[in-house]
Design goal:
93 residues, mainly alpha, 3 helices, elongated
Length: 93
């Protein structure tokens, strides 16, 4: 384990000391627990996002004919983007 310093509001530190005393832990243990929970949640969210993104990619790939080249796909995307921008400009003004 490595030692690190963090800054927090006086109220936060008082509350952490109170919780630590109540739970029979040190402030450092509470902080490590909180950091572990945050990291775990973030990784779950990242995994969920990756799963959704990969699902989207697979759905898009399943709709693309096998005989299209990447250049043709890029051309279609560019054209669709131009059409969308044109539609947005026409509808807003």
């Amino acid at each position: 384990m490595r030692r690190t310093n963090i800054y927090m509001d006086e109220d936060q530190l008082v509350m952490l000391k109170f919780l630590a005393l109540q739970q029979g832990q040190t402030v450092a243990e509470l902080v490590r627990t909180a950091v572990n929970q945050l990291l775990s949640e973030q990784l779950k969210n990242e995994d969920k996002w990756k799963t959704q993104f990969n699902g989207l990619i697979n759905r898009v790939r399943s709709r693309i004919p096998d005989n299209l080249s990447s250049e043709e796909i890029e051309k279609d995307i560019t054209q669709a983007k131009k059409e969308q921008k044109k539609t947005l400009r026409e509808s807003c003004c």
